Amino acid sequence: MTDLEPPLIPPPVPAPTSARAPARSRAVREDGLRTRRAILSHAVALSTVHGLEGLSIGDLARSLDMSKSGVYAHFGSKEELQLATIDEAGQQFSAEVVAPALRAAPGVDQLVAVCDAFFDHLRRHVFPGGCFFAGAALEMGTRPGPVKEAVATFQRAFVQLVAGFAASAVAAGQLPPDEDPTQLAFELNGIMLAADVGFVLHGVEAPLAMGARAVRRRLALAPD
Q: How far apart, in whole angstroms, are the C-alpha atoms of residue 75 and residue 79?
């Protein structure tokens, strides 16, 4: 063999069947998870238009070019589909609205960031029917059960997060010492919901700009 000739490399020995089986099993599981995630992404979008009660296996199957049985195999019941949809919506909302706020400086900057991110996710139609949780809260509020509780739990957690940002602002002296963080979170949440209603109902962005101005006015900040 000359210096220019590559060394001889023996062909790979096929792995025993027992070693290949786990790899195939993992691939199947990963395919199943991807399919489930695609179903839930469509379910979130459809539910902001048709409501959680309006979720249809048939509509999901048609939008994904799947059979009804293929979609239904991932969920044991309509309630399970609804709960999984709420969880998926929560992950999307957290990525779009909560994450930008957590990257901001503690205090007033986080309050502005969370509100602005909320308005921005509406503007970009992350959910085609407006804020998923605003719609779900109104729809499921009078329907006792696990679905209502899942929506309420997420909504409470979000308001508590905003209240935590407000508490940090008070502690840092950015807001008056007598400012009630819980009350402020309630008011800012109300501004966000009002902007959502105006944006969805009228199909114009003016309510989002009004919401941003209202947030800054409430926090005694100069307008942008």
A: 9
